[in-house]
Amino acid sequence: MLRIGRKGLLLALLTALAATSFTAAAFGGGKELVIAKSREALALDPQDISDTPSEEINHAIYEGLVTFDEELNVVPMLAKEWSHSEDGLEWTFKLKEGIAFHSGTPFDAEAVKVNFDRILNGKYKRTSLYAPVIKEVSVVDDHTVKFTLKESFGPFLNVLAHTAGLILDPSYVQDPKKNESIKHRPSGTGPFMLDEWEQGDYIALKANKKYWQGKPKIDRLVFRTVPEDSARAMMIETGEVDIAEQIPPTDVERLGKNKRIDMKVLPSIVVQFVGVNCQNEVLKDPAVRRALAYSIDRQAICDKILLGYAEPVNSMVAPLVNGYSEVPGFAYDPEKAKAILEEAGWTDSDGDGIRDKDGKKLTVEFWTHGRDTLSLKVPQAVQSFASAVGFDCQMKVMDWGAFLAATRKPVEESTSQLMWLGWSPSTGDADWVYRPLVHSDYWQPKGPNRPFYSNETVDENIMVGFHSVDQDERREAYRKAQEILNQELPWIPLYTRKTLHAFSKKLENVEYLPLDFVVISHETDKK
């Protein structure tokens, strides 16, 4: 566990002043911890969210049967132990006793059943995570619950540790009005309860004084929305906030010299890719995709653009993800890229620096979005590297909504070629990378297989990983799949980045999960 024992300047100052004004008025004393986040949470219903800011806050309010530790191992939470049948179809959980929800409703096996019946029979954002797998949930006795699966499912524990597995107050779920308003009026078993929500500004939680593991040491926990990078950096410097998330690489060295700040470079499981439409006329040839991969200097991107706060990766999954295996990849080799293109018939017949074949130029359009600086700088670097070996690589920048709409079109309507995308498996398991991103059943719009990739052997190995409860067998299946993927390259993995968070040295017992969020527990304290 981590134990954390100038127009732009004006904007930062105004933001910081706003932060002090609300806290002074709304909080009458006790220990307060303030976190500055780049984006606001959308809802406090864990079954109906898919954004990381919401997940972070939900984990302070709710708890699940199991959870993750900092190395993404699955550990007990509301369940004290579990077992599964030999065929992997039945999972039985023994529950901890003496636990209550914020409303006073007791936590028991019936509460678990009510929750999973809700998500299985509803139309929530995370229904698709459980509905294909869970057949039914049954109460064995007051403190024992059994999950019967439709088929054996290797990453079942990881999926239960997902935010969607957090347990809501059954008295709220069973009341139609309360169920409808859970996303803004939650009740869980966690160490904190919702106090107030000023949309667009902050969400404030208060200590659950009857928390089953002991009264929290922090009385009030505030998540402030501060979109401007420079504002978050300045607020941690001035002491207006206790944690500033997503610090830009350019500010890390300066904040690291501040004696009051613990500047952390933390692991992440986010992998950034170039997605390649395998059904596109130009890019359907794997040789062209391999040439593109060899043209990209990933180490230079990590060193020069990301200032060393990222590492090249040869896999679609990051090293901390369950199921990761070391596999041979590809290195920066522009001469090899040129040779591959020559062999594939792409030559520069007119000497203009752009390769052509059968009268057609090697022109590709690279789609990206303007959500952050890196979404522009990294694609620009890829564009430059590709152009150096003879691609006519043209970058197209869209707003986020337009980008998602364009990349979600079915194959017969899609005009995509290259796409700038990232992926973080919120289950912490390789299944939630390989199955949605490359299995042939998940082509858009059914799933996020945006490259429209299909390979029977890859599908077979993915399904071994899906069904087996033997983790070694699963890892070997994913290794075989990744070796094929590194030859066919529907996704060209670039790097896994580091998470850059700044913490006040006044804090103790703060936990960080590589899922990209901070966990404030009942033991978290502020000196």
Per-chain topology:
Blueprint lengths: L6 H20 L5 E6 L14 H10 L4 E3 L5 E3 L2 E6 L5 E6 L13 H13 L5 H4 L3 E8 L2 E6 L6 H6 L8 H4 L2 H6 L10 E7 L3 E6 L12 E6 L3 H10 L4 E2 L4 H8 L4 E6 L4 E6 L9 H10 L2 H8 L4 E3 L21 H10 L12 E2 L2 E2 L1 E7 L4 H15 L3 E7 L1 H8 L10 E6 L7 H8 L17 H12 L3 H18 L2 E7 L1 E6 L2 E7 L3 E10 L1
Parallel strand pairs: 1-10, 1-11, 17-18, 17-19
Antiparallel strand pairs: 2-3, 4-5, 5-7, 6-7, 8-9, 9-10, 11-21, 12-21, 13-19, 13-20, 14-20, 15-16, 22-23
Describe this structure in words.
- There is one protein chain.
- With 527 residues, the chain is an alpha+beta fold.
- It has helices spanning 7-26, 52-61, 109-121, 127-130, 156-161, 170-173, 176-181, 229-238, 249-256, 286-295, 298-305, 334-343, 374-388, 400-407, 431-438, 456-467, 471-488, and strands at 32-37, 66-68, 74-76, 79-84, 90-95, 134-141, 144-149, 192-198, 202-207, 220-225, 243-244, 261-266, 271-276, 310-312, 356-357, 360-361, 363-369, 392-398, 418-423, 491-497, 499-504, 507-513, 517-526.
- Residues 1-26 have low confidence and may be disordered.
- Helix 15 runs antiparallel to helix 16.
- It contains 17 helices and 23 strands.
- The longest helix is centred in the first third of the chain and has 20 residues, at 7-26.
